[in-house]
Every structure is written in C-alpha cells, then in structure tokens.
Write a structure and sequence with these properties.
Radius of gyration: 19 Å
Number of helices: 10
Number of domains: 2
Strand order of the largest sheet: 1-2-3
Structural class: mainly alpha
Largest sheet: 3 strands, antiparallel
C-alpha cells in the first residue's frame, strides 16, 4: 500500500484533497487536517498483495515531519494529536461523510467552521462536557473478551492489560461531548492505547474484532482514523 504502488488510488486521493482545499484556504486547521488525511490513506490503503505502509516507512516519516511542523504552528501538543484525529473523524461522521471532499459549497464551509469553533488552541477538549460511554452490547463484549482472558491465563501469558480493559469497559469509558458528537477523552485515548499496545498481538486483534462486531461505533471511537 505504498503511494507508488497505487498510482490510480494516489490520483484519486490527490484529486479528492484538491477538491476540498479549493476555496477553503482560510481554514486555520485545513492544512493540518489535510496532512492527517494523507497519513491515514498511506497507512490504510492496501496494494495488490494486501500490504500497506508501516509507520516507520520513509514516506510516513516524511509526512510526520510535516505534521509536527504544522502542530507547532498551531500550538497543538503531542498529546492532542490523537485526540484531534478522533475529533476530526467524529466531525466527518456528524456531517454524514467519510471525507471533506464529499461536502460541496456551503456544506463544506459549514464543516470547517464547525472544526474552527469546536477545536481551538484556547478551547481544548479538556473543557468539553465529560460523559461515560456504556455500550449497548456490554454483556456480549465482556463475555467474549473474558473467554480470551481465560485462555491467555491458562496458557501462562500476562493478562493484566486485558483485565484492566475489562474493568474500564464495565464502568464506562470516559468520553467528551460536542453538541451531539461523542469522542473519547484524552485520558481514555492514552489509557486505551497503553492497554492495547501492552497486549499480545493475537488477543489484541481478537478483542478489537469483538468490539467491531458488537459495537462498531465504539470501535470507531477507539481505533478509527
């Protein structure tokens, strides 16, 4: 899934980016959002062999440097980056699209005005209304994840991250609200990243699949973008 491996996909992506850039240069976060979308495509697009670029590939590292430069310009801290990605994806969902390129005219301008209004340097996610996300499929997710926990324990693997995830999940994962848009709080993003990265590969992927199967909305909040 390299850009050079997918010339047709690259052409489509470039066209898509140019479409929503046109006439929107006044958007304070436009370039930053643009770079994040480019990175997401690099990591998510697959080539004919079903492979994609790794985070430490030269192309992604080059893009990361541009992102870091733009973050400094906007005053975005490192810890805010993942939160902003979640926020931007949630905003796309709120507008019923998967990319700003799908928005035309006034709707496109409304989208970026929404980004400007609800995410600024001086008004961070810390000031948003806090909540707890309780999955409508809590019992199913707990039941399936507990099976994995028992299996891993029986095999002698360290299961403290799985146990901690179940504990956090049962009591409700902390979220933040913007109008009707709900995203994970910075605390939750950090915690979930830490717990899942601490798990063995197989149970981590299996638990991700369980969440995706029973609660796609939660999966998007946790792993989307």
């Amino acid at each position: 899934m390299s850009i050079k491996d997918l010339p047709a996909g690259l052409v489509d992506s470039v066209k898509e980016l140019l479409l929503y850039q046109e006439g929107m240069n006044e958007g304070k976060y436009l370039k930053y959002s643009d770079l994040l979308l480019q990175k997401a495509r690099l990591l998510n697009d697959k080539d004919e062999d079903g492979k994609g670029l790794k985070p430490d590939s030269p192309q992604v590292k080059k893009l990361d440097k541009k992102i870091e430069k733009e973050m400094k310009k906007l005053g975005i801290e490192e810890d805010d980056q993942s939160a902003y990605q979640k926020f931007f994806k949630a905003a796309l969902k709120k507008f019923g699209v998967s990319s700003p390129a799908e928005l035309k005219g006034d709707k496109e301008k409304e989208f970026y005005n929404y980004i400007e209004k609800n995410w600024t340097k001086d008004e961070s996610l810390d000031e948003a209304k806090k909540g707890k996300y309780k999955s409508p499929k809590t019992n199913k997710i707990v039941q399936d994840t507990t099976k994995i926990l028992k299996r891993e324990k029986k095999a002698g693997f360290d299961t403290k991250e799985i146990e901690q995830f179940l504990k956090e999940f049962k009591k409700g994962i902390e979220t933040e609200m913007y109008d009707e848009m709900e995203i994970l709080s910075k605390r939750s993003i950090k915690l979930m990243d830490k717990l899942f990265m601490g798990m063995e590969t197989m149970p981590r992927e299996e638990i991700g699949q369980i969440i995706d199967k029973h609660d796609p909305e939660l999966f998007d909040m946790m792993f989307g973008y």
